[in-house]
């Protein structure tokens, strides 16, 4: 695979005198560039590229997706499966000043997806590539006008193989359809559908040491079975976005979404009691077909009133969701004593599954929000929401358990222009958020945890060093209940978490040929509660680091038109790995180098991107829950070619 990558790069460079022309801007896949399109360092994904301090699974130490804070085009979306690039144009993390102006923000941040909407011109794109582990993929997207300026069709498909650092692999198929219908100049309707099938996906083990230490060194790219422990999943997102300009400053927006994730068969593979010499017990948990399905959406009416330099917006919102899950009924196989480097090739046993657990969550939220902006002076926003949250849990042979919460939730935010280019901002937010599900190695594995009340406050400054380069500094205080393993190996509330910190972002072009996106977080996460006072729970929450940093530079070379070179470096501080804080994953810094060559392939805009991640082949572990580990990827070379038609 490395030889293939080298040949591709050399071919493009040798052909440069023929192909390298000044490429006009094009709104296609050849223009995907997360670094150049990012407005800050808090998290941006475009196509296959992602950069920033945060992502959909981690913002200020917590997961906004687990908390239920996904949005699609700004409208409430209860995500079961994240939309793929076939339907998703970009992903932005809204936190701090980037959340200012969001009518109904959330304490753990917001993951906002932009949808690919078919345009008025016919076009298509083809993207293909792979990596040195052996992964290969091909993606195709097209837009076709069906009726001039009123109806357009979008279609996309992808297929490929994934190769993982633990030696497993998987195959997948991905397809999407969308329409953009404008029956009136004031009305736009965008229905969409997106499906993913994953199969032949083996389950590698998680390593659980016997004592207070990390597991012995794990060899990458080596899967030792069992080969039959692979699973297949089907995921789907479908929905419709509607925008109606109702006149006299009124805008009505609606989003209705259906999100589904089905495991046709799933496995949990554990090597428990791992000793420093590599001895361990092998345990396999087999799950019958499981289902996770949600219907959600939001109806929002906005009234905008312009008053000279002032703009007032009032939002009325009704959002709801209905999530249903079916899980458990698992069968456990204790496969005996082994070592971490011993293969397992025994034949597949017969599976006998038990009755399954079902839970259902229904939630309705009504809200009123105001956003006022005074040009050159500042902004003021506030919102008030009333939510009705209900949950039902039915375990086999046990009585039905129900829970209900009906809190009032308030938010206030403000920003003031202190001087030319200098803005001070702040906000305070209360939320009712989900706390996720118990991990697979817990006694109550997969159990949906209760909804929790969370709060967040932040204060900060944004300074425009130039019209395009902005520096943001934010101090934040985020508080929520702390869930992890108790003494009985149940995943339950152990106390509370307070995470206070400083967040920095610097982004923009430093010159005509140099772009920068850089950020850092310095924080002080602390666990509190009875367990901490008694010494059973450490003060450092599991999985949270006190510092992280991310640096990305892009330099457009003066020698070859269309050629740019990228440098990326990310640093993560030590992460507490056990509830008692006796074990930590060491700090590490990963470096990546990449290059992008934009050219015309014939008359078609094209882009070739080649990257080497983890340049120095740094060894490291990934936390899979308290006291459970897997290995991170080593040095990997990858490349993809995108062509717009």
Structure notes:
This protein is mainly beta. It has a single domain, classed as TonB-dependent receptor, beta-barrel domain (Maltoporin, Chain A, Beta Barrel), CATH 2.40.170.20. The protein contains five helices and 36 strands. The strands form four sheets. The chain has a 22-stranded antiparallel β-barrel. A hairpin with a 3-residue loop joins strand 8 (136-147) and strand 9. The longest helix has 13 residues, at 2-14. The radius of gyration is 25 Å and the shape is globular.
Question: What fraction of residues sit in β-strands?
Answer: over 45%
- Please state the CA-atom Rg, rounded to the nearest Å: 25 Å
Total helical segments: 5
Rounded mean pLDDT score: 91
Intertermini distance: 27 Å
Categorize the overall geometry.
Answer: globular
For this structure, the CATH topology is Maltoporin, Chain A
**Main beta sheet:** 22 strands, antiparallel, barrel
Question: What is the CATH C-level name?
Answer: Mainly Beta
What class do helices, strands and sheet pairing give? mainly beta
Number of structural domains? 1
Number of strands: 36
Helix-residue proportion: under 10%
Low-confidence stretches: 1-26
CATH architectural category: Beta Barrel
């Amino acid at each position: 695979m490395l030889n293939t990558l080298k040949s591709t790069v050399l071919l493009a460079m040798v052909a440069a005198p023929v192909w390298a022309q000044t490429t006009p801007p094009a709104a296609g896949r050849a223009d995907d560039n997360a670094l150049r399109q990012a407005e800050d360092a808090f998290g941006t994904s475009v196509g296959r590229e992602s950069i920033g301090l945060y992502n959909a699974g981690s913002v200020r130490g917590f997961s906004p997706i687990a908390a239920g804070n996904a949005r699609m085009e700004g409208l409430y979306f209860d995500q079961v499966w994240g939309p793929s690039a076939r339907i998703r144009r970009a992903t932005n993390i809204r936190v701090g000043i980037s959340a200012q102006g969001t009518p109904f923000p959330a304490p753990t941040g917001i993951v906002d997806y932009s949808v690919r909407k078919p345009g008025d011109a016919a076009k298509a794109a083809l993207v293909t590539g792979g990596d040195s582990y052996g992964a290969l993929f091909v993606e195709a997207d097209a837009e076709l006008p069906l009726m001039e300026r009123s109806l357009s069709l979008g279609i996309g498909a992808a297929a490929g193989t994934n190769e993982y650092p633990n030696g497993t692999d998987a195959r997948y198929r991905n397809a999407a359809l969308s329409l953009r219908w404008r029956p009136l100049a004031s009305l736009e309707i965008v229905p969409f559908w997106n499906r993913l099938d994953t199969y032949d996906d083996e389950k590698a083990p998680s390593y659980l040491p016997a004592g207070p230490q990390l597991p012995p060194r794990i060899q990458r790219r080596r899967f030792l079975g069992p080969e039959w422990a692979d699973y297949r999943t089907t995921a789907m997102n479908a929905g419709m976005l509607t925008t109606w300009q109702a006149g006299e400053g009124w805008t009505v927006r609606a989003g209705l979404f259906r999100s589904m994730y089905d495991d046709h068969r799933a496995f949990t593979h554990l090597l428990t009691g791992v000793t420093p010499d590599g001895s361990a017990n092998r345990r396999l948990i087999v799950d019958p077909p499981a289902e996770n399905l949600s219907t959600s959406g939001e109806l929002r009416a906005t009234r905008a009133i312009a008053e000279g330099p002032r703009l007032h917006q009032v939002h009325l919102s009704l959002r709801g969701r209905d999530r249903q899950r079916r899980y458990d009924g698992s069968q456990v196989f204790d496969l005996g004593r082994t070592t971490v480097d011993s293969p397992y090739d025994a034949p597949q046993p017969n599976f006998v599954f038990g009755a399954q657990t079902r839970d259902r969550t229904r939630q309705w939220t009504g809200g009123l929000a105001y956003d006022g902006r005074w040009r050159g002076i500042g902004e003021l926003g506030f919102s008030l929401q009333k939510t009705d949250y209900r949950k039902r849990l039915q375990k086999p042979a046990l009585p039905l358990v129900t829970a209900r919460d009906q809190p009032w939730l308030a938010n206030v935010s403000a920003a003031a222009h202190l001087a030319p280019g200098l803005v001070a901002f702040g906000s305070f937010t209360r939320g009712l958020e989900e706390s996720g599900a118990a991990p697979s190695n817990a006694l109550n594995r997969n159990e949906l945890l209760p909804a929790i009340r969370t709060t967040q406050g932040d204060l900060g400054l944004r300074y425009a060093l130039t019209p395009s380069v902005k520096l943001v500094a934010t101090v934040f205080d985020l508080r929520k209940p702390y869930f992890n393993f108790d003494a009985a190996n149940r995943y339950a509330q152990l106390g509370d978490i307070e995470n206070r910190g400083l967040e920095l972002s610097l982004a923009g072009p430093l010159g005509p040929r140099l772009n920068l996106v850089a950020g850092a977080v310095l924080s002080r996460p602390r666990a509190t509660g009875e367990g901490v006072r008694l010494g059973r729970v450490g003060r450092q929450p599991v999985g949270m680091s006190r510092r992280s940093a991310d640096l990305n530079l892009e330099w457009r070379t003066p020698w070859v038109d269309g050629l740019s070179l990228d440098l990326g470096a990310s640093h993560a501080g030590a992460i507490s790995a056990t509830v008692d804080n006796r074990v930590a994953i060491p700090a590490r810094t990963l470096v990546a180098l990449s290059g992008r060559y934009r050219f015309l392939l014939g008359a078609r805009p094209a882009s070739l991107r080649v990257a080497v991640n983890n340049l120095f082949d740094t060894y490291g572990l990934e936390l899979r829950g308290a006291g459970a580990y897997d290995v991170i990827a080593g040095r990997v070379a990858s490349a993809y070619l995108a062509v717009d038609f």
